[in-house]
Structures are given as structure tokens and as C-alpha cells.
Design goal:
With 174 residues, the protein is an alpha+beta fold. Helices cover 35% and strands 32% of the residues. It has a six-stranded mixed β-sheet with strand order 1-2-3-4-6-5, covered by helices on one side. α2 packs antiparallel against α4 and α4 packs across α5. The longest helix is centred in the middle third of the chain and has 17 residues. It starts with 6 loop residues before the first helix and ends with a helix.
Length: 174
């Protein structure tokens, strides 16, 4: 977990080393930081990066802004960086993170048992990925979901992201 208080700035600066994670912060319209996520475990020669150190504050949790932030990160990985694989890894016991990965279009690949030691306990790590082949359908679904037409007057979604992605996938296989 990232630190709080006075250590926050030092933590972010350390994350921006050339060989370390590249941290992105998410801000609300008033400029307050409401979340973060990092590109990490990047192997540019192989066209692979991972999104990690994902933290959404209460104002961002389960919001359109969170979905948009992850769309922008994926778009950057594929369109700007030209990568072929985008990964999401999490503690296998972290069900909210696992659900988020699937909702965003990552494909479950399996679990590495006893992958790490965290807080003196064995940690199993669930692996998910999105590839450049998956990206066109994911991108189309993200863009349709984020469209103002997908939300009613109260801000509720009309069509789920997962359903839009399946529609995109079917459209692209015709």
C-alpha cells in the first residue's frame, strides 16, 4: 500500500525512476487527487506492461471516472506505447480486483500459487491480460460505454460495459 501524509510525495517521486513503475494520478474536476495506477513490470522489448498499484479513493470507486481512467491507461499502452500485452495481477483473494479486471476486459489466465509472501503469508496471484487482439473490441466497448448517451438523466448506465464488449466482439467477427 502507498503511504499517506508527508511520505506521499517521496513515494510518488520514487515510483517515477526510469526503471521503476510510472505512476499516474487521477484528479477530480477541482484538481484533488482521487486515485492512482502505475505502469509497472514493463518490458518494452517484448511490448508488455502491467497496470498495478491501483488505488481509487471513495470519490472514484465504482464511478464512470474510474472506467474512463482505465480506458485511457489501456489506450496509452496499446495506441501510444504500441504494446501487444497489458497485464493485471492481483492477490487471488481480492475479489473486487478480480471482478474489476474482468469487467474492464482483461481475460483470466490462471493463478500462480504461493507466488509471493505478503504480510508473512503465502499469496496466490491471479493473472489477467488484455492483448492487442482484444483491444479493438475493448476500445469500442469503452467508447460506447463512456458516451453520454449510455447514461440516463440520473447518471445510471443504460448498457453494461461487458455487454457492449460482447456486442463489439460479435460485430467484429461477422
Amino acid at each position: 500500500s502507498p503511504p499517506g501524509g508527508d511520505d506521499w510525495g517521496r513515494f510518488l517521486a520514487d515510483q517515477q525512476s526510469p526503471d521503476g513503475p510510472q505512476t499516474n494520478v487521477f484528479r477530480d474536476p477541482d484538481g484533488r487527487v482521487v486515485g492512482m495506477a502505475s505502469f509497472m513490470s514493463t518490458i518494452a522489448d517484448h511490448g508488455v506492461t502491467e497496470v498495478g498499484y491501483v488505488a481509487h479513493g471513495p470519490a472514484m470507486m465504482r464511478s464512470p471516472a474510474a472506467t474512463e481512467a482505465h480506458y485511457l491507461l489501456a489506450r496509452h499502452a496499446f495506441a501510444m506505447m504500441g504494446y501487444r500485452r497489458y497485464e493485471w495481477k492481483c492477490n487471488a483473494d481480492n475479489l473486487p480486483s478480480r471482478r474489476a479486471a474482468l469487467r474492464l476486459g482483461f481475460v483470466y489466465e490462471g493463478t500462480f500459487r504461493h507466488h509471493r509472501v505478503a504480510r508473512d503469508l503465502n499469496r496466490d496471484t491471479a493473472y489477467f491480460s488484455m492483448t492487442d487482439r482484444d483491444w479493438p473490441a475493448c476500445r469500442g466497448a469503452f467508447e460506447a460505454w463512456l458516451s453520454p448517451h449510455n447514461f440516463d438523466d440520473t447518471g445510471r448506465q443504460r448498457v453494461r460495459l461487458e455487454d457492449l464488449r460482447e456486442q463489439e466482439r460479435l460485430r467484429r467477427t461477422r
